[in-house]
Write a structure and sequence with these properties.
The protein is built from 9 helices and 2 strands. 67% of the residues lie in helices and 3% in strands. The longest helix is centred in the first third of the chain and has 34 residues. The radius of gyration is 25 Å and the shape is elongated. Helix 1 crosses helix 6. The protein has a two-stranded antiparallel sheet with strand order 1-2.
Length: 222
């Protein structure tokens, strides 16, 4: 941007001003956002490794190479950090599940899609899933994490309704309990986060396909 000097009449460049401030503001905001994201990732790994309760703010700060006080520029507590980790996981997994339901396939195809979506979350949300397994009972007892139970109930309904529909359509056995079946499937998928290694013989989707073969066809010869 240029302006005209009242004394000389020559155009002069505005060196600072609002444009420069805005650019600096945007740059600072972007750096702060990147720093915040980095801290969340570091904390997530520590929560997964040590457990949420055993991990301190100082542990997180030390891992990040900053003073503990500096962490409070981004988060008011370690609960705020794990809140962000878990909320992100539930938002993404519920969105993925809903996308499968919106396809309105038959119940078998829908269950297969839900299984694939669950296995697909193992790598990007490894830490969140590990935290849920280790610290679920502790976290859900806190008011700020009341959404965990609500979200889990919503997810369970998605699966149970689909399993029940499959029984009504004659696709699934009617002598199995849908809720118990869902919980067994859920737990066997989530526990895989403890031994699944990205870059191994099977990727997450390959693992999902193997799981579906066992779940639908069993291991007996027919």
């Amino acid at each position: 941007m240029t302006t005209t000097s009242a004394n000389s009449g020559r155009p002069r460049t505005r060196a600072g001003g609002e444009g420069g401030a805005r650019r600096r503001g945007k740059g600072s905001a972007a750096l702060a956002s990147q720093r915040r994201e980095h801290l969340v990732k570091l904390a997530a790994e520590l929560f997964a490794e040590k457990g949420f309760q055993a991990t301190t703010v100082r542990n997180i700060a030390d891992e990040a190479g900053i003073l503990s006080g500096s962490l409070y520029h981004h988060f008011d507590s370690k609960e705020s950090i794990v809140d962000e980790i878990l909320a992100s996981f539930f938002n993404e997994i519920m969105s993925a599940y809903q996308a499968v339901l919106d396809e309105r396939g038959n119940p078998r195809d829908t269950i297969a899609g839900l299984v694939r979506a669950a296995f697909g979350s193992l790598e990007p949300h490894r830490a969140a899933i590990t935290v849920m397994q280790n610290d679920w009972n502790y976290l859900k007892g806190m008011d700020r994490f009341s959404y965990l139970t609500k979200s889990e109930d919503e997810v369970e309904k998605m699966w149970v309704d689909t399993l029940s529909a499959g029984q009504k359509n004659g696709l699934f056995r009617d002598d199995v309990d849908p809720k118990l079946t869902y919980r067994m499937v859920r737990d066997t998928i989530w526990v895989a986060v403890r031994w699944f290694k990205p870059g191994g013989k099977l990727d997450a989707q390959g693992l999902a396909e193997h799981y579906l073969n066992v779940m639908f066809d069993g291991i007996n010869l027919h």
